[in-house]
Amino acid sequence: MRRIYLDHAATTPMHPEVKKTMEPYFDRVFGNPASLYALGRDAQIAVGKARATVADVLGAHPDEIIFTSGGTESDNWAVKGTAYALQNKGNHIITSAIEHHAVLEPCHFLQPQGFKVTVVGVDRFGIVDPDDIRKAITDKTILVSIMHANNEIGTIEPIEEIGALCREHDVRFHADAVQSFGSVNTRVDDLNVDLLSLSAHKFYGPKGIGVLYVRKGTRLVPVLHGGAQEFNKRASTLNVPGIMGLARAVELARDEQAARVQHSTRLRDRLIHFVTHNIEDVHLNGHPTKRLPNNCHVIIKTIEGESMLLKLDAKGIEVATGSACSSESIEPSHVLIATGVSPVDAHGSLRFTVGRSTTEDDIAFVEQHLPGIVKELRQMSPLAKK
Description:
2 domains; Aspartate Aminotransferase, domain 2; 3-stranded antiparallel beta sheet; globular; 14 helices; 13% strand; alpha/beta; 12 strands; 7-stranded mixed beta sheet; Aspartate Aminotransferase, domain 1
C-alpha cells in the first residue's frame, strides 16, 4: 500500500547525508571523547567540530552549546536549572498556556517547592501578547519561557520582542525552538534569548540528541550529576554518533532552508485552501500567516479527529490529531482550549505537516480521499446535521 507521511511535526525521516555522516562513529571512531588515547582524541576532535558547526549556525560561541538527549531534556533543564540557580534572587516564572508539556510540567513540578508560576493566555490565533509578559513581570521574576513556534497549530510567536522585554527587566529568557529551527531565523542574538532548545529528530536528524544553548554568564544548575562532561554542566558519556548526525542535520537545515520553506509553503497552502474550500464546517487553527511553513491544522466539526485519523491511515495517509506527545490522551488539546476552541470541537482536530519529501501527488491523494471520509463519518455522527 502507498504510504503518505504527513506528520513531520512529530518526527522526520533521517536525511541520507545525516546517516552517512554518523556511520563511522558507530564502529570506527567509536572512542569515548573523555579518553586520552587516539580513539578518544579522534572522537573529541569530531565533537569539537560538531559543536562549532552548531554554534556557527545559531550565531553562538561553541562553549555555549550543550548537547542533550533531546528537546524534553533541554526544556526541563532550562526551566529547572534556571529556577534553582536563581532562587536566591526570586521565585517567579512566566510561561504561556500553549507551551509544550516539556515546559509546563517542570513549571508544575517547581510549584510545591515554593516557586510561583504565571501562565499568560493567548489570542484566538495562539499569539502571546508581549504586553501580557510585561504586566506579569515582578521584581521576583527570574525566568520567562515562551516557545518560538507552537508544535500543534504552528503559530510563530513574537520572540524577538519578548526577549528584548526580558533583557530590559534583567530576566532570563528561554525559547523552545524545537519546531521552528530550520524554518525561521533562530540566531540567538536576533531572538534576544539566553537559552534555546533544539531537537535533531525534528529537522531530519537522529532521535535521542538535542541542544541547549546557554548564553555566557547565564547561571544554570545541572540536572544530571556525575562526570565532568559538557563543561562540567551535564554528566553523561557523549553520544558521538548522535552529535555528528545533529551537526550535519543543522548544516543541511541551513543550506536547504530557503528551498525547504518554499516547497513546504506551497504544499501547505494548497492543503489549507482545499480543506477550507471543499469541506463544510472547517476551522483553520493558528495564525493564517504567522505560522510554520509546513503546518496545516484544522478542526473538521461534528466528527472525531481520531476517527478521521484511522480512516486516513486505512488509505495510507498518516496524520495527527494533536501533538505526538499527547496522542494517547483523551483530554482535548490544551493548546486549542487556550485559543478559545470548545472541548467538543477540539476533538475534531487534524494536523497535517508536510516535509521535504512530500509531493504534489501526495497532497492530491489526500484531496481525493479526505472529503469522502468526512462525509462517511458525518453520516454516522449524532452531532452532524442530517
